[in-house]
Amino acid sequence: MADIVDVSGQEDELYEHYAFRVEKGQQPLRIDKYLMNFVENATRNKIQSAAKDGCIFVNGNTVKSNYKVKPNDHITVKFEHPPHENLLVAEDIPIDVVYEDDDLLVVNKPAGMVVHPGHGNYSGTLINGLIFHFENLPNNSSNRPGLVHRIDKDTSGLLVVAKTEVAMAHLSNQFAEKTSEREYVALVWGNVEEDEGTVEGHIGRHPKNRLQNTVYEGDEALKGKPAVTHYKVLERLGYVTLVSCKLETGRTHQIRVHMKHIGHTLFNDERYGGEKILKGTTFTKYKQFVENCFKVLPRQALHAKTLGFEHPTTGKLLSFSTEIPEDMQLCIDKWRKYAKHQDNL
Predict the structure, then answer these.
(1) What phi, psi does 150 have (nearest 5°)?
(2) What pTM value is reported for the model?
(3) 152 is known as an active-site residue
(4) pLDDT in tens, 260-269
(5) What CA–CA distance (Å, rounded) separates 142 from 44?
(6) CA pair distance 228, 311, nearest whole angstrom
(7) Most exposed among 152, 153, 214, 235, judged by the fewest C-beta atoms under 10 Å?
């Protein structure tokens, strides 16, 4: 497998540093294409610029972007990025605040918004907006202001943000101790046979595509971290199913990985293969119908609908819920209409 190490900060802080060991079974592949599979948000232009600047090394020697990687090659890369003091810039970004008091706020994040700055996303994030609208937010263990937890860029829904150090510690502990309530709604490929069930499987980096995570079981379980997802069927819509997923743990891409693991990849989840037609007929009309659904919902069909936790000061149990956003609801409606039509044939 290819090992990846982010060694940022060990040298010049103006660069992101990565190190890879190419897996034994790797076929010859241009290094710019290879790196696009392993570094999130690294565009081909960014990789080619790094090569042009002499910032890509294989076995200690600089290489051009057309170099073809071979098994056991040791690759190191430096990507230039803005100085760290410029990463957290306050920006007047609208934030949908569902609830606010002196200790915390709950926000409804739209799909497409990145939660915190990172490689390739240095502006326009939720945090850029938060530090504009709210002063003196406490840093979490990763020095991210206010952030107790996060959801993926193309997932919509609820997040709690801490406004004080005490609230940050209290809320973070609830997430760590699995006492918070998090329910997501997802549209997945296929007819989920059981009305409800639990997926348990350690989640870790995919050995061949570092932008994905995967489930490790048995002797390999130690390659991942324990993860538990409880699902329940909300509505069967023929070739897709609407499900509710409740998280016991909060691993990266947990629902996306667990649902794929049981054979029900999220609808239009490009990273995990859900942007292909995984169930249904070979008829051209059906293909056109699915393509229209993809256009209506150009992202994975996942929404963080419900969030519950104990208030860090009052001890009161708070629970919040949001409507499924329009793009996802339109897609569900299309499938509902399609399924009804099929039933009437």
Answers:
(1) -145, 165
(2) 0.77
(3) yes
(4) 999 999 999 9
(5) 28
(6) 24
(7) 235
